[in-house]
Amino acid sequence: MISARSLGTLQAEIVRCRVCPRLVAWREEVARKKVRRYRDEEYWGKPIPGFGDPEARLVLVGLAPAAHGGNRTGRVFTGDRSGDWLYGALYAFGFANQPTSRHRGDGLALEDAYVTAAVRCAPPANKPTRQEMDACRPYLVRELALLRRARVVVALGKVAFDSYLRVRRELGREAARPLPRFGHGKTYRMPEGVTIIASFHPSQQNTQTGRLTRAMFHAVFRKARRLLEG
Hints:
Uracil-DNA Glycosylase, subunit E, globular
């Protein structure tokens, strides 16, 4: 309960954040102008907090919200193709109560899983600057410190993978030896017992070109489930 209350406080703080002028301007412009297919919807247009079970043993780290995904719906990995892949996989392996994630009020609930991101605002061209990533990292540091039961971390993409390793250093946690390197399916067990699994991000660029197949993606979550079940 202490973790849940603390996460709630942190999430509320994230939603109010206006630290990065470029990201604030972009997320609000997108929410104001919209796109034709969502013109009748009210966009969220604010930073996106983490989502899921405060007692989660599985933590997933992505890059940033999509302009017309999370920035529209108000929930991480929600309302776009990447979210379809992610929550479909979480459902298939018993971490979600439904395979779809359309909007923050659609009834989706996660069990033993928590989804977050390295950057909380939708960046132009999906590319946050180094300064924006540095400004946002303290939120991820605090979040991961509160997720005390985490045993498996799935990093969705190299940026998320590198961000997680940097957060570990800032939390004073030892790194594995040799130093972990990103590669889809690569798995590293950290000295304190947490295991990190690297995965290609389920972006359309990866899924539509075949760089990431459904079988490859599900293999990551099958491995996560097996690790958690011992």
